[in-house]
Write the structure tokens for this entry.
Amino acid sequence: MPRTALITGASRGIGRAVAKRPAADRLWLRRVVNALPGPVWTALPDGYIDFFNRRWCEYTGLFVDQACGRGWHTIIHPEDLPKLVARWRSIVASGEPGDMEARLRRFDGEYRWFLISANPMRDHAGQIVKWYAVSTDIDDRERAEEKLRRSEAFLAEAQILSRVGSFSWLVETDEIRWSEQLYRIFEFELGLPVTLDLIGSRVHPEDLPLMSDMIEKAHRGVSDFACEHRLLMPDHSVKYLHLIARGSRDNQGRKEYIGAIQDVTQRRLSEEALGRARSELAKVARVTSLGVLTASIAHEVNQPLSGIVTNASTCLRMLSADPPNVDGARETARRTIRDGNRASDVITRLRTLYSKKDLVSESMDLNEAAREVTSLSLGDLQRNRVILRHELAEDLPPVSGDRVQLQQVILNLVRNASDAMSAVDDRPRELLIRTERDEGDRVRLSVKDAGAGFKPEATERLFEAFYTTKSDGMGIGLSIGRSIIEAHHGRLWATANHGPEGAFGATFSFSIPSRRESVADVEAPANQTDPATGAAA
Amino acid sequence: MTSTQERIAIHRSLVAVVDDDESVRESLPDLLKEFGFATSTFSSAEVFLASDCLHETRCLILDVGMPGMTGPELQQELIRRRQNIPIIFITADRDKTICARLLEQGAVGCLFKPFSDTALLEALNAALRVS
């Protein structure tokens, strides 16, 4: 130790610094410093540390005289020591207050991070007479920061690996924050201020309606939303994104959405390939089943036709014989009539596949049935980039009917509407499902699309079996749909949309009696003829 | 063989009809009688095989699709038994590939229901020439 005179005790150190003070003052000051709850030390103007308080000694397990001079070096973490010594020298040289950080060894051997703040004390002339330093245990904060750095690094890595970016969006001010990965997904320069306009410049033009729909939802304050949309990149490649967002309030109570966006391009491309394969398969299956259907119809009808032709031939031969066999001819003519009726029975059987006697009648909520159908077809609708809207009347009375068959009709109308808009690119592909009370205690459901619509003269042909405008359609859907609705004592019809807001597309509606009316109706004769269509119900 | 002799041969011939469809079993014998044939009808292949007519039959009018033993199966069974009865198949299914296969297997004719009386008579004439 270079300053042997000072190593004997703290009282000496303090004594040297405040030599001109009375002994009572010195003793009092030492008591104060010792009473401080944190580790404190003092140093001479040249930086020589000459006193450590009781709390410091308790923490390190050193005695004051062991620690003075360079003795304290032994409890500094070896990695931190050179930096700490250099920093302390520079603080002393500057004569200004300064902070240092280092790990200090506790009496039990554990190192903890400390923030050491040193302050000079000056005399009247401004000369430094003493340094006082307070150490603060910042180990917990240091660990928390380290943990945060690690989890941020983990998150960033996970976002890269999973192609997920996250964002926050303050709706009122349109303040949007993106994670780094989101910048990568959108291929914008990191740190570029994010605005809705900037995002819009990347969104696929055909999907801009989806984006404005989402913004409108957010301003309306829906709790959370999800959507799939595409980006059109500068190199004309297309990315598919899946977005989910959850509404919350920020610390100032403003509406904020926190969300994640996943780049699902790879998945979508393989799904599309799968979808194409599946629809090809379905087409084959439909053609096959149609082939099977026509073959069985042909078989059923050809049997009695064969009898008719044979009997009629025999009849002619008997009549042209000499003498004519009138009794035989009468018998074969009678058989001809019977076989003719048999053929007609076959046709009737086909027609009654969806007849009233097959209906399973139950009380049902048409709103619920419609919601079930749309939730089932949501994936298809999103794939076709159809914006689905519901306007379901809350006070809708229940109807009586076959749930499965009515849902088939709704599904068929929804699919038709979606298909009708598959070529629409210059306007939103909006599909509206509406339920409402209809006159005469009836309930009406309508499906409105923004597709190509149809010419007035085609209105009735739409419902003919095997009439179709679709390349992959069989044309049976609407005619079967009408049979089902008519079996429910209802009506299915189509109208072309009019007016400035709905100048495009068509609306298909059906109207069926609500439960009370239809209960009374069930007792009516089963095979009555519908005066509107002239067809048997 | 002169045409007179041919007609006599036809008039003596027994034509068997095997079809599960009742209207065929009712109507066809009358027409065959008008042609001058003797006829016998059977509602299934099994009943025909068990009958006494098997050895007398000069021509068989056979439905393709039947419950139990089908027409083509009866054809195979007759080949196995070396019963050389000319067969005219009749079918309500307009499937040309099945028809072609049956003709390959030795059938004399294959008629789609409904068939005309002249088409049937032509096939019968062809069948009796074979036998």
Observations:
- The first strand of chain A starts at residue 40 and ends at 43.
- The CA atoms of residues 6 and 12 of chain A lie 6 Å apart.
- The mean pLDDT of chain A is 81.
- The interface with chain B takes residues 295, 298-299, 302-311, 313-314, 317-318, 321, 328, 331-332, 335, 338-339, 342 of chain A (CB under 8 Å).
